[in-house]
Amino acid sequence: MSTSPLSPVPAPRVPVDAFVDAAARPAEPVRRVRARYTESTVTVYQAYSPALGLPAARDGRFPAAWKRERMTWIKPSFLWMMYRCGWGTKADQETVLAVEIAREGFDWALRHASLSHYDPDEHTDRGAWQRELKGAPARVQWDPERDLGLRALPYRSLQLGLSGEASRRYADEWTVAIRDVTPLAREVHALVRAGETAAAAALLPGERPYPAPEGTPGLRRVS
Q: What does the alpha-carbon distance between residue 191 and residue 197 come to, in Å, rounded to a whole number?
């Protein structure tokens, strides 16, 4: 039996916090998909109001009130989600969810995604990017990864925006399980505030480099 995708792991991601000398950290590429995943699933994070988040966690699926026609952003990075939702303290983001989705769906979204911004290293011109973006059911954005203090690190992690077909399939086909990890967020935050960074790091969901499919936007760049 596989371990729960949210059980504490003995080896936290690298780096675990900004208090470690940067020179001691292994080199990281500027962009990389990092995630907790198994052979068949990937765990991503979102934060919602309790009115949406609690029923989703209770039932293991998104309720009818979850608007499938709107774009939704999923984050494989737990700490980036903590930065975005303020450890679950921001309004309408008080319930932090870990959503386990099928790898097949996650990879489909990456293969059918466009970059959320124009990049001359990836697009022949701005018009080509705009046409690609208009027709894409998913968008890729690369944002600075965060440390335990929620400070920006010198490399970036994935945000994946889903709309139209991708949003509907995420909610109704790809989702395998939904868990409320708000207590975990609060526990890690409390340890960070107490200066117990090693203990906080030991509770982080283990994330490792994910084998993103060929053509993932932002990873086509030639170094």
A: 6
d(C-alpha 154, C-alpha 152), whole Å: 7
CA–CA distances in Å: residue 73 to residues 43, 90, 154:
13, 16, 22
Residue of 12 and 91 predicted with greater confidence: 91
Predicted confidence (pLDDT) per residue in 65-97, tens digit? 999 999 999 999 999 999 999 999 999 999 999
What average pLDDT does the segment 32-55 reach?
98
Rounded to an integer, what is the distance from CA 102 to the centroid of its chain? 14
215: left (phi over 0), alpha (psi -120 to 50) or beta: left
pTM value is 0.86
Mean pLDDT score, 203-222: 87
CA dihedral sign of residues 77, 149, 117, 73? positive
Q: Which residues contact 75 (CB under 8 A, 6 or more apart)?
A: 44, 45, 46, 81, 84, 157, 158, 159, 160
One-letter amino acid at 79 equals L
What string of DSSP letters covers 115-169?
ESS--TTT-SSHHHHHHHHHH-SEEEEEEEEE-TT-PEEEEEEEEEEE-HHHHHH
Which of residues 124 and 21 earns the better pLDDT score?
Answer: 124
If one counts every other C-beta atom within 10 angstroms of the C-beta of residue 215, the result is 11
Distances (CA, A) of 39 to 36, 43, 72, 159, 176: 11, 12, 24, 21, 13
Residue 118 tokens, joined: 């124009």
Is residue 11 classed exposed, middle or buried when 0-12, 13-18 and 19+ CB atoms within 10 A define those classes? exposed
